[in-house]
Design goal:
- The complex is a heterodimer of chains A (300) and B (361).
- Chain A contains twelve helices and two strands; from the N terminus they run H-E-E-H-H-H-H-H-H-H-H-H-H-H.
- Chain A has 300 residues and is an all-alpha fold.
- Helix content of chain B is 24%, strand content 34%.
- Chain B has 361 residues and is of the alpha+beta class.
- Chain B contains nine helices and 21 strands.
- In chain B, the strands form five sheets. Chain B has a six-stranded mixed β-sheet with strand order 6-7-8-3-9-10, with helices on both faces. A five-stranded antiparallel β-sheet of chain B has the order 15-19-16-17-18, with no helix packed on it.
- Classes of the chains: A mainly alpha (300), B alpha+beta (361).
- At the A-B interface, helix 8 and helix 9 of A face helix 3 and helix 5 of B.
Chain lengths: 300, 361
């Protein structure tokens, strides 16, 4: 039988292709384009090859120094936030009621911080922490603690971490709660029969059953904290000095503050690659968790 | 190992103040012998699992007491009751190997390492799990997982009783039979009290020495499989046990004679003092009603169909508006649809308001 050749099918793909081109490919290529050129304004561009990338990845240059400093700062921030939010979220989920009207009450209270826009959260904490009029700042100073997030880097960090924990622990708690709810009652009954302690129930049943949602929570919180911009920008503006200047704040300073389009574009690309790689690693880990290396149907 | 007494026990999931008619478990008292193999048999929702969970302590009864060897354990938690329970669906601890799963109940009770190892090896041997001991339990099939659940119930050497809550539901039919025989063998070997909940009469009758039949939160009869078959204490038992179930027919009874649609049926015992106003029925198992050629001294019936069960044949017949099942003798062939029914008088029982009436000799 003769195969009928009909290329019209390509037309059907076209709308999607155009959509993706405008939403992703063209903007991305613009950034790639900027990252290999230099400009002195006036819409004049000069070819610079991989020059910006070389500078960026060399900590001894001004650009590289700034990039790596904010990268380490950002990684430290993400680590701190995860180290607090994940265990705290599990703890909150474990202590939530299982049934009755209290469930609804708890869920609403937990969901509230998640519904507040980023810049509002920033403003709330910015005022909350002020030592002249803020409830937190004023009270701390009243007790003789010299708390001032505008002047003291440690105070600024603690404020931002506390704010993030306040804003996002609910997300981890809700995910864990969903994971816990999916455990059949028979598991708890069996554990009672087997004489398991509270800790043994947690390690043998609850934690393994929560593994998947915990990975999702971990991934979401890592990505979000790694890309954080609005809240620290509103609270500290990246200061005092550069102490809370995270990657995205640095990027905005570079692109919009100094209008160094080439440097900023190169940094965007590398930033983007880091996010993609971390995503990919997590995705691979997540999809492999619980599956067999060697699938066995194992009859006895 | 213990004798278990239930004293005036009752339970309602809506609290003790609820209407007694809605109780999941109506007031009851009963004793489970040390070393007995019991089956709790009844349709879904009759309170079997509630009763089991009360014995194991997962559910606190609204009323009454539970005694293990005369010691009141009602307020004690499951952990302190020293009881093992196997559930309908396999429960395994995902992160552990098969061996670790089996060792879990022993480890939680602080046994020493070598004791645990020898006990686990022994139970694995009994359940044919030895080749899988080192594997992760999540990797096994549903059968094997349920074997692990069974194993965790059996592994503790000192339990007062082992409770099984329809443990073979997820098991393949051919393995079901094998596992049931294994449980029976274990029961003989370990001299443990075992209580086995099921809604499958074959399972109950093959496993247990004593079958406890429940209906609507009440125990309607407790006896050997033979008792249940030959002398059901309640029409429900007659109907629920046996396949096909007992024929239950409205009748009038006087002395040593019952009348069924005007036809007299002989009884071996005299029933002179039947409760007035009660609904009187006679019950006879299909195995004790013989189909024969029509004759003046036999009850006339019409055949509707014949069920061939391989070893035996049962005729589904109709007497007026009444439907019955009756055994067809080997080699009998039928000339027409009209037959006579021959009742074995020794196995015709009289029921007043569904309860067995003992006649006078």
């Amino acid at each position: 039988m003769e195969k009928i050749v009909n290329q019209k099918a390509w037309l059907l793909v076209l709308p999607v292709f155009v959509l993706v081109a405008f939403s992703a490919i063209i903007p991305l290529m613009t950034v790639v384009n900027y990252s290999v050129q230099d400009t002195f304004g006036n819409n004049q561009f000069f070819w610079n090859g991989v020059g910006w990338y070389k500078d960026l990845l060399d900590p001894s240059t001004e650009l590289g120094g700034r990039f790596f400093a904010s990268l380490w700062r950002n990684l430290l921030f993400s680590a701190a936030v995860l180290a607090i939010e994940i265990p705290l979220g599990i703890l909150v989920a474990l202590s939530m009621p299982r049934e009755g009207w209290r469930v609804a009450a708890c869920l609403i209270i937990l969901a509230l911080p998640l519904l507040i826009p980023w810049n509002v959260v920033g403003t709330i904490w910015q005022i909350f922490g002020r030592s002249d009029i803020g409830l937190l700042g004023y009270t701390l100073n009243l007790f003789g603690l010299n708390y001032n997030y505008v002047a003291n880097p440690l105070d600024a960090w603690l404020t931002i971490i506390a704010m993030d924990v306040w804003h996002w622990t609910s997300l981890v708690a809700l995910l864990c709660y969903a994971g816990l709810k999916s455990i059949p009652e028979a598991y708890y009954q069996a554990a009672h029969i087997d004489g398991a302690s509270r800790w043994a129930v947690f390690t043998a049943i609850q934690l393994p059953k929560m593994k998947r949602v915990l990975l999702i929570a971990f991934l979401l919180r890592f990505m979000d904290s790694f890309m954080i911009y609005t809240e620290p920008f509103v609270v500290t503006g990246g200061g005092p000095g550069n102490s809370t200047t995270f990657l995205s704040i640095e990027l905005v300073k570079l692109a919009l503050g100094q209008f160094d389009l080439g440097k900023a574009a190169a940094m965007s690309i590398v930033y983007n690659l880091i996010v993609l790689i971390v995503c990919w690693v997590f995705y691979t880990v997540m999809t492999n968790v619980g599956t067999e290396r060697r699938p066995e149907t194992g009859g006895v | 190992m213990a004798r278990i007494d239930l004293v005036d026990l009752a339970h309602s999931y809506h609290g003790p103040a609820a209407d007694p008619a809605t109780y999941a478990l109506k007031p009851m008292s009963m004793t489970w012998r040390q070393g007995g193999a019991y089956a709790l048999l009844g349709p879904s929702g009759c309170g079997k699992t509630t009763l089991l969970n009360i014995i194991s302590g997962l559910v606190k009864p609204s009323r009454g007491r539970i005694l293990f060897d005369q010691r009141d354990v009602t307020p004690l938690s499951t952990q302190r009751r020293n009881i093992a329970q196997v559930f309908q669906f396999p429960v395994i601890y995902d992160t552990m190997t098969v061996a670790e799963n089996l060792a879990f109940p022993l480890k939680n009770r602080g046994l020493r390492g070598e004791q645990i190892a020898s006990r686990v090896a022994e139970i694995a041997q009994l359940l044919d799990l030895t080749p899988h001991l080192k594997r992760k339990a999540t990797r096994l099939s549903a059968d094997a997982k349920q074997k692990i659940s069974l194993g965790r119930g059996l592994v503790r050497p000192d339990v007062a009783a082992i409770l099984f809550d329809e443990p073979l539901t997820v098991i393949d039919p051919h393995l079901k039979w094998e596992l049931r025989s294994k449980l029976k063998a274990l029961h003989r070997a370990l001299d443990l009290t075992m209580i086995y909940v099921t809604h499958d009469q074959t399972e109950a009758l093959t496993f247990a020495d004593t079958v406890v039949v429940m209906q609507d939160g009440m125990v309607v009869q407790s006896g050997t499989p033979q008792d249940l078959f030959e002398k059901p204490a309640h029409t429900f038992v007659g109907y629920f046990i046996g396949s096909p179930g007992m024929n239950i027919l409205p009748a009038t009874v006087q002395g040593r004679r019952a009348h069924l649609s005007g036809h007299p049926i002989a009884l071996t015992r005299a029933y002179d003092r039947l409760p007035a106003g009660a609904r009187i029925e006679i019950g006879v198992r299909p195995e004790f009603v013989r189909v024969a050629a029509p004759a003046p001294n036999l009850l006339n019936a019409r055949i509707e169909r014949i069920d061939d069960l391989g070893r035996t044949r049962f005729a589904r017949v109709r007497v007026g508006e009444q439907k019955l099942a009756a055994q067809v003798p080997n080699g009998m062939s039928f000339a027409g649809a009209d037959v006579g029914l021959d009742f074995d008088p020794a196995h015709v029982h009289v029921y007043a308001d569904s309860r067995l009436v003992e006649g006078a000799a």
